[in-house]
Amino acid sequence: MLLSPRRIPGRYNRQATVPTRDFVRRRQMRRRRYAWERWKRVFHRVQRGIEQLKVTARRFALVFVACLILLILGLLLFSPILEVREIRVQRSDPRIDVEQVQRALTPLFRTHLFFLSSQDVAPMLRKALPDLASASIQKRYPSTLVVRMTLDPIIARLSIEDRGAPALSSGAAMHMADFLTSQGMYVTYLPDQMKAAQQPLIRVVDWGARPTPWMPLLDAAFLLEMRQAEQMLGEQFGQETTERIVYLRAQEFHLKTKTYTLWFDRQSTLDAQFRRYRVFLRSVGAGAVKQYVDLRLADRVVYK
Is 112 helix (H, G, I), strand (E, B) or coil? Predict the structure, then answer.
């Protein structure tokens, strides 16, 4: 049986010599250096393990990103998730019939949204809206197509008539009204679809075949020339235009003022015709005119 440990009696204690103390100190220093070397080796092993883990993680990340890209490409190319299931029409003009546009774009349903371009949509919109000026197509993934359109602005009301006959209206039974766009297209709309601004009236006469709605009626150059003539008449002569009459076959137009009507054609320039008008005003005077002034002839001015 072992006895409990206790201090050695003082008579047996011996004072440690200097060499013994040096030996013990060296021994303790060697233990501390060994422990420190052990910790350094462990730290270096952990550090090498972390570096190896980084390389492995980097390789795994590259493989993961490549697989993710392939998956996304597969979804874009083959997945039905990105097929068109909804078409939204943003109405920017009361003339736009949303249901008509959606019916025209019906073939786009189940079309892959990623491969759809505005060049595919524009002809369908043009067919539904002949007076279309521009259209913007916006894709909202995964399955929505947003369409915003701008129509050619209306510049005038039309009254299509024949000499000696009452004015004709293509949509009289449906209470439709005839209008002219800035590009010279003849269109028909309900009065409720038009904005509150009152457009000037253009009377169209002398037509060979009855003009058809949604077809070009006057070319842009003709409209520009008539607009310039009206502007010059107001700015240079102080005469306000109250009525505009277009002769389709003869390719001429008449501008009616408060006192008489001026006849223009496209055979000569506006400058030449207004030059003849100035000579007429200086030599004859506006007071002599009761009905019209014909400026079409190159060597004379006829008036009544």
Answer: strand
Using omega within 30 degrees of 0 as the cis cutoff, is the peptide bond preceding 80 cis?
A: no
Mean pLDDT by 10 residues, the chain (304 residues): 73 75 79 84 86 88 89 77 86 85 88 82 88 88 88 88 56 70 89 73 84 88 90 90 89 91 90 90 88 88 87
Going by their DSSP bridges, the two strands 252-256 and 292-294 should be labelled as unpaired
Strand ranges (DSSP E) for the chain?
A: 86-90, 132-140, 144-151, 154-160, 177-181, 185-189, 201-205, 215-216, 243-247, 252-256, 261-265, 292-294, 302-303
CA 286 vs. chain centroid, Å, equals 51
Q: Where are the beta strands (DSSP E) in 8-90?
A: 86-90
> 40 forms bridges with which residues in the sheet?
none
**In contact, 255 and 241? CB cutoff 8 Å:** yes
Give the three-class secondary structure for 168: strand
Per DSSP, the chain holds a count of helices (H) and strands (E) of 5, 13
Q: What are phi and psi of 253, to 5 degrees?
A: -140, 150
Residue 141, SS3 per DSSP? coil
Cβ-based burial of 32 (10 A; exposed 0-12, middle 13-18, buried ≥19): exposed
In contact, 203 and 161? CB cutoff 8 Å: yes
Q: Distance between CA atoms of 99 and 106, rounded to whole angstroms?
A: 11
pLDDT at position 171 is 47
Q: How far apart are CA 184 and CA 94, in angstroms?
A: 20
pLDDT given for residue 163 in this prediction: 56
